[in-house]
Write a structure and sequence with these properties.
Blueprint lengths: L14 H28 L3 H13 L8 H23 L7 H7 L6 H17 L5 H11 L6 H15 L15 H21 L9 H10 L1 H13 L5 H19 L2 H14 L2 H6 L1 H9 L7 H18 L10 H15 L5 H18 L4 H15 L4 H4 L2 H18 L2 H5 L4 H5 L4 H17 L7 H10 L1 H4 L13 H13 L9 H15 L4 H28 L6 H23 L4 H17 L3 H18 L3 H17 L5 H15 L5 H11 L4 E4 L2 E4 L1 H16 L6 H16 L7 H15 L7 H14 L7
Antiparallel strand pairs: 1-2
């Protein structure tokens, strides 16, 4: 029975594995041939060595390797050829270079022939056995024999590498060649290298186009090094660059019509040549940008150039000629480029404007018109773009950057707001982004303590940050807004009021009126934050104004002072009323009392009565919580007691109304305590005013005692409170409170209201101790 053979399955290699296999085979062959070449050279067998060198180069004739693998193989071969180069230069072979130069031209295949020719030719030049210009011209012409994109590209790169230190420059003799010969050589090599690099895109099928483009990008340095060689020539000065080098380079860049090549070559051109050269040829470079293919990212190219020249001009202002208007050149050319590219992405357009703005603020920091022009051009472009483009994160980020740059540079919001195109650009943003910019403006103003003295400037600022000040159509529902963030924002807006100041009282009051007009549009959720500091600043204003009048700094007759006081009163009163209208009763009540004290200090008595009545009205109608009522009345009593009202009729009327409100409190204990406290309204003893009405004092205390005595469970504490009020007047040694009244009160407390478990008992005991320590006559303990 015959034995069946097992079927064999052919292994299928992946593309990566196949590349690795091809590369390893070629590399091994190169190393084997290289080993034999070195042995031959060591044994002075030059012709054998050249044969092995030719075999090394034969491996570079392959079409099986990707550009990346081919580059790796080239580097291995390059090392062996350098060994050969060194041997030839040391002249151990005993032959003249002209002989060797002719010998290697008989190599069988064109690629090995040209590599060997370049190797020998570089030594030919170095040993000065032939003029460099003639050998270079011969080599550059010979290289035309290889038109395969990959092989030709690396051949010309080899030519560039081995001749880089042998190029004629400014110190070369005329016979050997001039710098112009080197320029012609490099530009010719650059042109041919670029053509080969561009042609590489056609080597792969259409489906592999993306892969091939990526492979091309990996080889871009082979082309760019030619421009680096040009920049390294000492003989290439600004004149030579602008008249000879640049026109030929940009001609090749434009004519190649390849977006990858154009993108890279423009970037490397800007990188390798000095900034002074770019300054002198700015128009040419920018006009070249306008002629590039539509797929080229001109924004990156121009932005790179702008940033470089802006930094150069900042460091070396004296090296920038007066006749070169950097900003004007960039601005006009950028405008033309944008117009010529209707499909240019908005984010790229905005990126160019960011660079332009940085340029003008670095080079011309005092020229605000340039900055305004940039913002204006940007805004005019944005309004014609679709909203979905404007709201892209990258676009939003750049618009905000455009708005932030002037704030960071000037550190003065007054300067920024003079840019007429600043505010219209903000309006192009969505609500949240407008709010962010507005907050940046507010923070900048606060952090730099920018004092704003002119009404027009205040109006401009508040219009610019209106997103923070009033409701807008595109804002989220208030329920969706974070309450803490909102409160923090409004507090910052409110703090701006303290930066509104002017030595001219008329201007300052006008500023407050403008601020009130803007803040008043904010609705109940905003004005609770913004109007309060405005009230306090207005009260401070009238105090300062009065002080200036009294000291003679401002000359004003009584009638005019009263008229001005009336205006400020109306302003303050209406501002507080706006808060009262949104049910901020406690706050409004306190503000009225604050205003009452201020107008009393300024001697505007009639206004004091009006403010007190307004406060009492809020107390009656809007303060419902009984604890809040007690606190409010205590505050009112303290405020009235501090007044210096010369008109007793007005004062007694206010005191009577206060007692009336106290008698209406919910709890009898509170009624009694507050009415007893009201007794101080009739015994005023302070530096600004002396007023004593003993009858009213006693009447208030008796009324308080009557109220608490009629309670079934009055509590000890209230009686002791009244007793302490009585002792206050005893200490004043006044007959307002008879000693007998106090003695009877003590007896009443001891015999009727003292209970062992009463929490107020220590309070009573301490009071009794005080009475004993004072030795009051007529009070028996």
């Amino acid at each position: 029975m015959m034995k069946k053979n097992k079927p064999t399955v052919a292994q299928t290699l992946s593309p990566e594995e196949e590349q690795a296999k091809f590369f390893e085979e070629a590399k091994n062959n190169v190393m084997i041939q290289g080993h034999h070449m070195k042995l031959s050279l060591d044994n002075s067998k030059l012709m054998d060595a050249l044969k092995y060198a030719s075999n090394i180069i034969n491996e570079l004739r392959t079409s099986l390797l990707s550009p990346k693998s081919y580059y790796a193989l080239y580097l291995v071969a390059f090392d062996y050829l350098q060994y050969l180069n060194t041997y030839l230069y040391e002249e151990k072979h005993g032959k003249k270079m002209i002989e060797l130069y002719e010998v290697v031209q008989h190599a069988g295949n064109v690629l090995p022939r040209l590599y060997l020719l370049i190797t020998v030719g570089s030594v030919y030049i170095k040993t000065k056995q032939a003029p460099a210009k003639d050998v270079l011209k011969d080599l550059i012409e010979m290289c035309r024999g290889v038109q395969h994109p990959t092989r030709g590209l690396f051949l010309r790169h080899y030519l560039s590498e081995v001749t880089k230190d042998k190029l004629p420059d400014i110190d070369s003799s005329v016979e050997n060649g001039t710098v112009m010969d080197s320029i012609d050589f490099i530009i010719q090599n650059f042109t041919e290298t670029n053509k080969l690099w561009v042609r590489m895109q056609h080597q792969a099928p259409t489906k592999d186009r993306e892969r091939r483009e990526n492979e091309r990008l990996e080889l871009r340095l082979l082309v760019g090094k030619n421009l680096s060689r040009l920049a390294q020539l000492d003989g290439v000065d600004q004149k030579t660059y602008s008249e000879v080098v640049l026109p030929k380079v940009v001609e090749q860049i434009i004519n190649c019509k390849d977006k990858i090549a154009q993108q890279y070559l423009m970037e490397i051109l800007i990188q390798v040549f000095p900034d002074e050269f770019h300054l002198a040829t700015l128009d040419i470079i920018l006009q070249t940008c306008a002629q590039l293919q539509s797929g080229v990212d001109v924004k990156t190219i121009i932005a790179s150039l702008i940033d470089r020249l802006a930094n150069f001009a900042t460091r070396n202002a004296d090296l920038v000629p007066d006749n070169i208007k950097i900003f004007d050149i960039f601005f006009n050319n950028v405008k033309e480029i944008i117009q010529a590219r209707p499909n240019m992405e908005l984010q790229d357009i905005l990126g160019l404007h960011v660079s332009l703005l940085n340029l003008t603020l670095k080079c011309y920091p005092t020229n605000k018109d340039n900055a305004n022009e940039v913002l204006g051009l940007c805004q005019s472009i944005i309004v014609n773009k679709a909203k979905e483009d404007i709201n892209k994160p990258t676009c939003v980020k750049q618009i905000i950057q455009l708005l932030q740059i002037p704030l960071d540079v000037f550190k003065n919001v007054l300067v920024v707001l003079k840019l007429s195109n600043y505010q219209p650009l903000i309006s192009c943003l969505s609500y949240n982004n407008r709010k962010k910019v507005s907050l940046d403006i507010v923070n900048n103003t606060i952090n730099n303590s920018t004092i704003i003295e002119e009404p027009e400037a205040v109006n401009n600022l508040l219009e610019t940050i209106q997103t923070l000040i009033k409701d807008e159509q595109d804002q989220p529902d208030m329920d969706d807004i974070d309450k803490e963030d909102f409160q923090e924002e409004q507090n910052k807006v409110a703090s701006l009021i303290h930066l509104f100041d002017s030595e001219d009282p008329e201007k300052l009051f006008k500023i407050y009126i403008i601020a009130r007009g803007h803040f008043g549009k904010g609705g109940p959720h905003r004005i609770r934050h913004t109007l309060v500091p405005l009230v306090f600043c207005s009260l401070r204003f009238i105090r300062n104004f009065k002080q200036q009048v009294d000291s003679g700094v401002i000359s004003l007759d009584e009638n005019k002072w009263i008229a001005i006081g009336s205006k400020i009163f109306t302003f303050v009163s209406e501002t507080i009323k706006a808060l009262a209208d949104i049910k901020l009763a406690d706050l409004s009540f306190r503000l009225y009392l604050q205003a009452l004290q201020t107008f009393d200090h300024c001697g505007l008595v009639s206004r004091v009565k009006e403010l007190a009545i307004k406060a009492l009205l809020i107390f009656q109608e809007d303060i419902a919580d009984f604890k809040a009522q007690v606190m409010a009345l205590q505050l009112l009593i303290s405020t009235l007691n501090s007044l210096s009202i010369p008109n007793e009729e007005i004062y007694e009327s206010l005191a009577a109304q206060t007692i009336k409100q106290a008698s209406r409190l919910l709890l009898p204990q509170d009624q009694a305590k507050l009415i007893s406290t009201c007794s101080h309204l009739f015994w005023v003893d302070n530096p600004s005013r002396q007023y004593q009405n003993p009858d009213s004092v006693l009447q208030a205390l008796k009324k308080a005692l009557s109220i608490i005595s009629n309670e079934s469970s009055p509590g000890l504490g209230t009686f002791v409170d009244i007793l302490n009020e009585c002792l206050f007047y005893c200490d004043k040694e006044t007959d307002a409170v008879p000693i007998q009244f106090v003695s009877d009160l003590v007896e009443l407390i001891r015999t009727t209201h003292v209970k062992e478990a009463d929490p107020a008992l220590p309070y009573l005991q301490n009071t009794i101790k005080y009475i004993q320590s004072q030795n009051y006559k007529g009070i028996s303990i």
